Amino acid sequence: MARGSGAVVVAVAVVALAGLLLQAPPAAEAAGQKKPATAARREDVPYIRCQVCERIAREISAQVAAKQQALPPSKKVPEIEIIDIAENVCNLKKQEADWMLRIDIVEKGDKLELVDQDEEGHCNSECKTIERACQEVMGYADTDVAEFVYTNKPSVDQLIKFVCKDITKACAAAPPPVPKARVPGEPFAAKPSKDAEMEKIMRSMEGIPGAPNMKMYSRDDLMKNNFGADEGNDDDDDDDEDEEDNFPKNLGKVLKNKGPQKKDLKQQVVKQIQDTGKKLKGHVSKVSKVVKKWWQGKKPTKSSKTEL
């Protein structure tokens, strides 16, 4: 069961990402420029810690309010849902942390400021730096923050005070001045709307039961086959499972070897997806038959009933 669901999940992830692959590559990549850094700049965290803390409080307040609006006036947002928000608000893999994708870190004088953007941007070093600061601020305080919100229904200002001054001390002191020698961060690069939509779909599928192994592959991963390394190690896999495990590799081969005729990439990806869909369908049918036979074999016979 785990094996079959894992194969289906991998296929679903690749199918979903096919839309992303059909998009044009980032401008920097197309122009042959060096890719922007994607690691968090830990040295920048002290300069934005307080601002990030205030954003955390605002986001938790806004997300809880949105859930409350969807409920009847007589009902209250369950505490477990508030805990989920507080736990996930600093995790870029979760929808609750989407707010980080719409912020640019701008250097103004000897300070760093978080500036809101109208659309989501590519998550490079600045995005990861905000996530790092967010995680350092929250630490293990998420459940305490959730309990405070559930019990007191605080205003935004009250929640900012509780989170940033009372419990985390993130805003207890003014941030230090930014060194003049600091290397500026990368400029904010808006993400194509289709890419943003696809990534939201992937993040929303994170919590779906049976989909813990779903992975998100980048364009480079597919081109270089840098995925699926830990799969296919089962010596008991049958031929159908081997074919399923080879699907991502086959897709990477299609993308890498376009051939001299330069066939339409979309047609190649769609065909590969259709072929794999047929293989998965056949595999599911075989598994169903095996389970049926196993179940029939487990049913007690008349002789066994007599003996009992």
Task: Explain how this protein is built.
The structure is a single chain. With 308 residues, the protein is mainly alpha-helical. The protein has helices spanning 2-21, 27-30, 45-69, 79-88, 125-138, 142-152, 156-167, 193-204, 219-224, 239-245, 247-256, 265-298, 302-307; strands at residues 103-108, 111-116. 56% of the residues lie in helices and 4% in strands. A two-stranded antiparallel ribbon has the order 1-2. A hairpin with a 2-residue loop joins strand 1 (103-108) and strand 2.
Uncertain residue segments = 1-24, 229-238, 301-308
User: Rg from C-alpha positions?
Assistant: 25 Å
Helix content: 55-70%
What is the mean pLDDT? 75
Question: Which sheet architecture does the biggest sheet show?
Answer: 2 strands, antiparallel
Helix and strand string, N-terminal first?
A: HHHHEEHHHHHHHHH
Supply the helix-strand structural class.
mainly alpha
Strand order across the biggest sheet? 1-2
The rounded distance between the terminal residues' Cα atoms is 32 Å
State the helix count. 13
Number of strands: 2
The backbone outline, from C-alpha atoms, is globular
Work out the strand percent.
under 5%
